[in-house]
């Protein structure tokens, strides 16, 4: 079994000051699952800093709606803490439930009077890289797709951004699969991209090439904002191919299509983790009720 000390990142941890503005902090991130670490003593070495919390787009922009000029210290997220004696099952469950792909790691406290010492970060990508060669990922993608309970959510390329935002807010998903009238895959629309876009006039002009208010944006079509470059696989391929694409291309998901290019499913980092949990001992239960309430 993997030792957590082997996958802790201790250097080059992306951090911001608690006095920085949220807009500045979020400009350093690219997906809703990323995280910036916030310390009281920014200039000190990581192991001597006092950890305050993180900034995460999902919690700051999607679950909450903080203005861009809010100071980081007022919109901190307090994620689950990982200690070095945690099992891999528990770590993976915390990554899944928190919807955050970077979690802080602390040294085990041996005596009550000792203070927690920040050691570094464990990322979803680092955990995945140590799972990819397991025999279970030789299974066909079809097995994972059939095990998913939530139906695939899609939107037409001609639909409005207003409709897309409504779906995002009701379902709390982070991406929508975009199709044309023939039900064929056209691209992917990211909720994080839209929310960031709505919050920044400069990005509105950069992406659309035109000025306008939010009402104008809502009336525009999905096809003007979706990402056309999408990585795909057929359900007959082994799971490790999806694994390799996610790791090598540094993406969050792979779209599964049939012979006629119709989307039939999507595989995410979360799905790969859940497949591991289901195959290698079932869902690990050692997660506190407190964290379940915070991160559900």
**Approximate strand percentage:** 15-25%
Choose one word for the global shape. Answer: flat
The total tally of domains equals 2
- How are the strands ordered across the major sheet? 1-2-3
End-to-end distance, in Å?
A: 28 Å
CATH-derived architecture of the largest domain: Roll
Helix content: 25-40%
What is Rg?
20 Å
Kindly report the average pLDDT value: 85
| Number of E-state strands | 12
- Give start-end ranges of low-pLDDT stretches: 200-211, 282-296
Keywords: CBS domain
Protein name: CBS domain-containing protein
Domain CBS: 72-140, 148-206, 226-283
InterPro entries: CBS_dom, CBS_dom_sf, Diverse_CBS-Domain
Summed up, what is this model?
This is CBS domain-containing protein. With 296 residues, this protein is α/β, with parallel strands linked by helices.
Written overview of the protein:
The structure is a single chain. The protein has 296 residues and is α/β, with parallel strands linked by helices. Helices cover 33% and strands 18% of the residues. The protein is built from 12 helices and 12 strands. A 3-stranded mixed beta sheet has the order 1-2-3. Strand 7 (154-156), helix 6 and strand 8 (175-179) form a beta-alpha-beta unit. Helix 2 packs across helix 7 and helix 3 (88-98) packs antiparallel against helix 11.
